[in-house]
Amino acid sequence: MQIDDTRRLFLKYKEEHLYGRYITHKDIEPLLKKFNKNIDIDIIGYSVLDHPIYGLKIGTGKKRILMWSQMHGNESTTTKAVFDLLNTLADSEAVVKHILEACTLYIIPILNPDGALGYTRINANQVDLNRDAQNLTQPESKVLKSIFETFNPDFCYNLHGQRTIFSAGKTNNSATVSFLAPAQDEACTITNTRKIAMEVIAQMNKALQSIIPEQVGVYDDAFNLNCVGDNFQSNNVPTILFEAGHYKNDYEREITRELIYIAYVESLLYISSQEVTGRHYKDYFDIPENGKCFLDVIIRNGKVDDKLLDIGIQYQEKLENGELKFIPKVVEMGRLNELYGHKEIEAHEAEVFGENGEELTEGYENVFVILNNEKILL
């Protein structure tokens, strides 16, 4: 299938009831009802605060793929794309019908419903579930491990979102989508299991390069058995980390959502159409490792307290009365020559003040600064 065909599928099956970054059970539970006829839906456990955790099973094929999203509650882009994918598969679209004939998918759309509700990375016990794979101290971790053991997947998709700081290599290209074939031992050995994951990632990268050239990255593969991906990979199950990142001016991650959907579809078509052996893994190493080269805003060549410097600003994501807001915060001041801003403002050596004329310092939070006696919206 051509990439333009996949993009047309996205436009046709995009779940219009999901938008933005704040996605909770309130958003997805009405959508689950429409899948009752062709998707098996179960409550597979409960969170710390006793919210249900849903598991969805679709397909009849022998290749078994386990996917889970919002392990970190504030990483929701992959969840939106999951429902776009479910809409596609549930309609038995002819071009993807053979996915369901070759594969069985088990999807946990929100593993951490408490974190999703509070828009936090951690769960209600203040635990990062992605550091609990070995000790299994949390009910959500136990749910995932139980499904992993009973479903016995051939592939795992570990679905996450990443901050706006990441670049594809040490460049001014944002890492809009990132992947990782996690290590399965301390030596980061390129095992047969990892090669299979790498081959699938290489295929997704090939598709994405036609849309976002040089905006795909991979993460450092340092091994940590407490991380779910490393843990499942160490059990010889090819595991792929997906990271939904930033596209220019796309803070709601709607463009990235489409790109993640494309990655899902392209990978599932690849897995369903052939035996993935890991033989074609080497193209994985053409993908640059993520750098941390971005801030959200940089004011270049501003004067603060008679010093000429750059002012680096990062948006703080804050949930206020059920609404997600992006609050600019000064995080770094100096000569930021090795960093890039998703938005850059040239001050031309003019003085820069806070909104009320106060001197700027690191930690300053406001949506405005004063430049040339004008309020500048950050």
From TrEMBL:
Keywords: Hydrolase, Metalloprotease, Protease, Zinc. This is Peptidase M14. The active site is at E243 (proton donor/acceptor). Residues 15-271 form the Peptidase M14 domain. One of its GO terms (biological process) is proteolysis. Its cofactor is Zn(2+). PROSITE patterns: PEPTIDASE_M14. GO terms for molecular function: metallocarboxypeptidase activity; zinc ion binding. One of its GO terms (cellular component) is extracellular space. Belongs to the peptidase M14 family. It holds the Pfam family Peptidase_M14. InterPro entries: Peptidase_M14. Gene3D superfamilies: Zn peptidases (3.40.630.10).
